[in-house]
Amino acid sequence: MRSFSSCLETSIAYDEMCKTYTKTDGIIMLIFVALHMILTTVTVFVMLYFNTIFFGVVLSLVSMLTVIIILWGRKQTLATIGFAKKDGLKSFLIGLCFGILIFIFRGREQLFELENIGGLPALLWLFVYYLIIVSLFEELFFRGYVQTRMNALIKKNTDAVFFAGSLFSVYHLPLHLLSGYSFFSFFIFRFWILIIMHVIFNRLYKQYNSLAGPVLFHTLMNLSEVVWQQ
Hints:
Elements (H helix, E strand, L loop, with lengths): L1 H5 L5 H9 L2 H28 L3 H20 L14 H19 L12 H32 L6 H15 L1 H6 L4 H26 L3 H16 L3
């Protein structure tokens, strides 16, 4: 019974780190999020116009570098955004297990039909793209940076998680609108799905204070949606 309940506990290292962040950290985070939302919206339309993902790749890489620069300026380490060695392997294995289950479940009727996406090389390219450009960025930014600094502004954990999850959801709005969603359908359905995803990814992050599990789980979840087109 104890072993089961311990799986639901938050990492002590995570709790202790969150206590060190100040309102200044929270305000800097909100300013950066606002700027990033604007740049994301512009970038989505630029990508559509030029029909290339290049600008999205650049934005993700520059944004990750900017977070690291902010940490340097605030005298904070990479461990404060989930690059911690302790329990990283446990986080990785749990993320891998959940991700494989989702991948197999979504593709249960097409598992051996990789030629539909261009074969194994195409699958590996998609995996690398979603791993580094999409999942690593979103987990580093929203779970490692935004959520942890949000705790400095909103002390009640459930409120802090909901607000950070709302930012994560709204971040996806421009792309979803271009994909055919209306404002109404997005906020009635997809908005809440993305908040639930934030809660799940954040819970895995908090458990081990590591990006490894959330990044891998997020990657395989996104990959399954694209590969199996469900």
